[in-house]
Amino acid sequence: APTLPEQAQPWGAPVEVESFLVHPGDPLQLRCRLRDDVQSINWLRDGVQLVESNRTRITGEEVEVRDSVPADSGLYACVTSSPSGSDTTYFSVNVSDALPSSE
Questions:
Q1: Sheet (strand 85-95) strand order
Q2: Considering the domain boundaries, does residue 103 fall inside one?
Q3: Which stretch is the leader sequence (predicted)?
Q4: Which of 53, 60, 78, 82 is a Cys-bridge partner for 37, taking CB atoms 3.0 to 4.6 Å apart?
């Protein structure tokens, strides 16, 4: 049977995905839980490095997107590296007004 490269295996834990439903125009805030010895933090969306823009602010363990649009939807990942290994936290983001807002 094929085996995963070691980095692809979470340490004995199932991959957790936090789901967010955001209405267009609302802010999106993601926060990564950090271990004490974290040395670097990388944010990805759909596997691509997330970069700051006039709407997207990255401050270490937090990402904030102002005025969300459907194009902001995707699978976000926070990848942290530390001497004891790397961790990835996933956030499934769906920017949609499919659900009625409270009336």
A1: 17-22, 85-95, 74-82, 40-45, 48-49
A2: no
A3: none
A4: 82
The CATH code of the domain that includes 79 is 2.60.40.10
Provide the 8-state DSSP code for 15.
Answer: P
Tokens of 57: 């602010």
Domain containing 44 equals: 18-95
Element (H, E) at 95: strand 85-95
How many helices (DSSP H) and strands (DSSP E) are in the chain? 0, 8
Structure tokens belonging to residue 82? 């530390």
CA–CA separation, 18 vs 75, rounded Å?
A: 10
If we measure between CA atoms, which residue out of 54, 64, 77 comes closest to residue 30? 64
Q: d(Cα 16, Cα 6) in Å, to the nearest integer?
A: 18
**What SS3 class is residue 60?**
coil
Q: What is the pLDDT of residues 42-51, one digit of tens each?
A: 999 999 999 9
